[in-house]
Amino acid sequence: MRGAGIVRVSWVTTALFTLTVVPAAVAGDALDGVALVTALVLFAVSIPVWGYALVKAAVRTTRGDDVLVASLFLVDGPVPKPVRWHLFGSLAVSVAVALATAVAEPFGVLVPMLPLGLIGLWGARHGAFPQRAEPNR
Fold first, then answer.
1. Which residues are within 8 A (CB) of 100 and not within 5 positions of it... i.e. 6 or more apart?
2. Which of the four, 11, 30, 114, 129, has the lowest number of CB atoms within 10 Å?
3. Does 133 reside within a domain?
4. What DSSP line would sit under 84-117, residue for residue?
5. 33-66, pLDDT tens digit by residue?
6. Is 57 inside a domain boundary?
7. Residue 54 domain flag
8. CA 51, CA 36: separation in Å to the nearest integer?
9. Burial level of 26, CB count in 10 A (0-12/13-18/19+)?
10. Residue 76 is part of which domain span?
11. Is residue 50 part of a domain?
12. Is 34 exposed, middle or buried (0-12, 13-18, 19+ CB in 10 A)?
């Protein structure tokens, strides 16, 4: 599977988030620090992931690919179904966990930015885009 490393990172970070935030939300103050640090680190990691994905997409655009935001984030275009299911599955789990634990651990709502950024990264690195049409002059 193309981009298997990106898919793996998405699931590993979602699992890490889940394994730290759920016990903290249930147990209370004893594990709040671990959940807080995990959420902030995962969000901090998402920032360069997003930056790299957007720069990579811009480079592909300058080389003639017609990269659209919809195509970049796997909503459009020829993407293998397993890749789409895994990346969007990881995002869905991350969002569900963040919403379920938001009252107890509010910084967790930042974490879904990482799986979303990884979707964009997969699209920028492995997505297939049509050639950009020449403008009519």
1. 25
2. 30
3. no
4. HHHHHHHHHHHHHHHHHTTTT-GGGGGTTHHHHH
5. 999 999 999 999 999 999 999 999 999 999 999 9
6. yes
7. yes
8. 23
9. exposed
10. 4-126
11. yes
12. middle
In this predicted model, what pLDDT tens digit does every residue of 72-97 receive, in sequence order? 888 777 889 999 999 999 999 999 99
The backbone torsions φ and ψ at residue 136, rounded to the nearest 5 degrees and listed phi first, read -75, 130
pLDDT given at position 87: 96
Write down the pLDDT at residue 137.
Answer: 66
Total domains in the fold of the chain: 1
Residue 4: CA count within 13 A, CB half-sphere: 1
DSSP class of residue 67 equals -
How do residues 8-21 score in pLDDT, each as one tens digit?
999 999 999 999 99
Within 8 A by CB and 6+ apart from 22, the residues are 97, 101
Predicted structure pTM score: 0.92
